[in-house]
UniProtKB/TrEMBL annotation:
GO terms for cellular component: plasma membrane. It comes from Acetobacter oeni. Mediates influx of magnesium ions. Alternates between open and closed states. Activated by low cytoplasmic Mg(2+) levels. Inactive when cytoplasmic Mg(2+) levels are high. It is found in: Cell membrane. PANTHER family: CORA FAMILY METAL ION TRANSPORTER (EUROFUNG), ZINC TRANSPORT PROTEIN ZNTB. Pfam families: CorA (PF01544). Keywords: Cell inner membrane, Cell membrane, Ion transport, Magnesium, Membrane, Transmembrane, Transmembrane helix, Transport, Zinc. The chain crosses the membrane at residues 261-281, 293-314. This is Magnesium transport protein CorA. It catalyses: Mg(2+)(in) = Mg(2+)(out).
Length: 323
């Protein structure tokens, strides 16, 4: 998809050069080769492809060429089934902004509506800062939802939930999956914020000769917002690590309880087996061999060797709490 955005006008699909006349912002969304070639011709600038935007070195993500500033960063997005972090790219010139993305983002739609509703003509620099503000605001909203999800996860971990026997392992796996999902999401948001921070700093340095004071102030505000969100992400990452340690600790306790039960079962089976083995030997001079109460004596000894250890383990709390 190839859209052209003009101040005070709704977005328009671009199929020919005439469709982009007067546009301040050209937005390429998962472009085809034909759309990419048309955008390159209209902008008279090289427009990066997906392979270029996927590169991770700073020299490939942030650089200038003639009077154009090239910017790229990964930007997290949550779909119905998974987390994705495709790259987005910008080509900023004094007259036009070209954006290249491979997924739909609500922040781009918000910026497009603000541009369409604006009564004041906006420059390419205005549009870029408008986009950065919208992206940062959207990430802040996403992080609020992550914080709420972590709070609920914390309550689930520490609420003392006791699932029915046979479902404890499933509950534990679900908790660990939620912890891992939260850490993945926090990590992707951190990468996105790092890229946006570098973009904001690079733009402020390379375009300071032409940026108006108001835009410089707004860009500084974006930097401060990104810094505060980075602090929030760090706090959330620490909380995720704490919840992971707590969940693993509870799992270890559960495993120890299981080992206690196995120990009790093994222990109480030794004594009666030993008694049965002794009195099952067919030696002529066994003292109790002709004793009329020998059978009941052996049964009583075996029963006592089971009951007494069970009572001892119970009083120690291995089989439940002592009332």
């Amino acid at each position: 998809m190839f859209l052209a955005h003009r101040t005070g006008q709704p977005a328009r699909a671009v199929e020919t050069e005439a469709d982009a006349a007067g546009a301040t912002w050209l937005d390429l969304i998962d472009p085809t080769d034909a759309e990419h070639a048309l955008a390159t011709k209209i902008a008279s600038q090289d427009i990066p492809r997906r392979a270029n935007l996927d590169e991770i070195e700073s020299s490939s993500r942030l650089f200038t060429h003639d009077d154009a500033v090239y910017l790229s960063t990964p930007l997290v997005r949550r779909t119905e089934t998974e987390l994705v972090c495709p790259p987005i790219g910008f080509v900023l010139t004094p007259k036009i902004l070209i954006s290249v993305r491979f997924s739909q983002y609500a922040s781009f739609d918000i910026a497009a509506r603000q541009l369409a509703d604006s009564a004041t003509p906006l420059s390419s620099d205005d549009v870029l800062i408008l986009l950065l503000e919208a992206i940062v605001d959207r990430l802040a909203d996403v992080l609020e939802h992550v914080g709420l999800a972590l709070n609920q996860l914390s309550r689930d971990v520490f609420a003392g939930y006791s699932p029915q026997a046979g479902r404890i392992a499933a509950w534990q796996r679900a908790i660990l999956r939620r912890v891992g999902h939260s850490e993945d999401f926090s990590s992707l948001v951190r990468d996105s914020l790092l890229g946006l921070d570098r973009i904001a700093i690079f733009v402020s340095e390379t375009t300071k000769h032409r940026l108006a004071h108001s835009l410089t102030t707004r860009l500084a505000t974006v930097n401060r917002d990104i810094a505060s969100l980075n602090d929030f992400v760090s706090q959330q990452s620490n909380k995720v690590q704490f919840l992971l340690d707590a969940a693993l600790g509870f799992i270890s306790i559960e495993q120890n309880d299981g080992m206690k039960i196995l120990t009790v079962v093994s222990f109480i089976g030794v004594a009666p087996t030993l008694i049965a083995g002794v009195y099952g030997m067919n030696f002529k001079d066994i003292p109790e061999l002709t004793w009329s109460f020998g059978y009941w004596y052996a049964l009583t000894a075996m029963a006592s060797s089971v009951i007494l250890p069970l009572l001892w383990f119970w009083r120690r709390g291995w089989l439940g709490e002592v009332k």
